[in-house]
Amino acid sequence: MKKLIYFLFFSVASFQAIYPQELDIKVVDSLYKEDQFYAGVTYNLLGEKPSDLSQSGFSIGLHFGFIKDMPINKNRDVSIGIGLGYSANSFNQNLKITKDDLGAISYSILEAEDNYSKNKFSSHLLELPVEFRWRTSTPVEYKFWRIYTGFKLGYLLANTVKFNGDPEHLKYKGLKDFNRLQYGITLCMGYNTWNLYAYYALNPIFSKDAMLDGRTIDMNAIKVGLMFYVL
Predict the structure, then answer these.
(1) Does 129 sit behind a cis peptide bond, omega within 30 degrees of 0 on the bond before it?
(2) Which residues of 154-188 are buried (b: 16+ CB within 10 A; e: fewer)?
(3) In this protein, which residues make up the domain named Outer membrane protein beta-barrel (predicted)?
(4) What is the largest distance, in Å, between two alpha-carbon atoms of the chain?
């Protein structure tokens, strides 16, 4: 029996010497980055509205893209982010847009007594976000607080205007009165996946050719909602 015990003891010892116990080792990437895909949903508002212009219903924005992270300090918790994205936005409101047979565009405010079920314009943008990023991340911590602020440049890919009412239904695409370049400042802050997001446009949605009662339509886009980041 003793020989059997000695044999088992030395067998186990030899096995442990050849195959050490598995250690819980975490590989630390000292040059980590927060390269991230993002997706967001916003409620879209109109700022600098003409008098009597109001919004109705729910105006939504959907945002997708990727941001390249470039740390600028030793701890890598401060960085610059540059990305590429896509944004689809709708605005439900009472500014009626019509186009005659010669292509001239006119604008008017719908009154409360006007009978209509839908009046909106929408846009599709190719976007270039540039962010200054601060976060509490570390090489081994993937859940962290973040504050990202920056600038977003958008190029208008397409626009659509829809009106459903009595006695007419109108739909236009590619109206020239929309500004091709749209840009503004952004702010995103939160923890881990869930983050509050805001965008404030610095230029109007419409060009100077868009006139209402002899005045330019200088309203801009304001977007507030949630942004989600995935490594």
Answers:
(1) no
(2) bebeebebbbeeeeeeeeeeebebbbeebebebbb
(3) 34-206
(4) 107
Sequence-distant (≥ 6) Cβ neighbours of residue 215 within 8 angstroms:
50
For residue 230, the model assigns a pLDDT of 86
Mean pLDDT, rounded, of the chain: 87
CB neighbour list of residue 174: distance below 8 Å, 6 or more residues apart = 158, 159
Q: pLDDT tens-digit profile of 84-125? A: 999 999 999 999 999 998 889 999 999 888 889 999 999 999
Is 212 within 8 Å of 108 (Cβ atoms)? Answer: yes
Residue 61 pairs in a beta bridge with 42, 89
Supply the DSSP string of 41-85, one letter for each residue. Answer: EEEEEEESPPTT--B-S--EEEEEEEEEEEE-STTS-EEEEEEEE
For 7, the enclosing helix (H) or strand (E) is helix 2-18
Is the separation of the CB atoms in 34 and 69 below 8 Å?
A: yes
Q: How far apart are CA 131 and CA 152, in angstroms?
A: 8
Contact at 8 Å (CB) between 120 and 59?
A: yes
Sorted by sequence, the CB contacts under 8 Å of residue 197 that are 6+ apart come out as 40, 42, 186, 187, 188, 223, 224, 225, 226, 227
62, 188, 185: which is closest to 124 by C-alpha? 62
Q: How many other C-beta atoms lie within 10 A of the C-beta of residue 83?
A: 20
SS3 at position 152:
strand
- Measured distance CA(199)–CA(139) in Å, rounded: 30
Positive or negative: CA dihedral 127, 171, 43, 219: positive
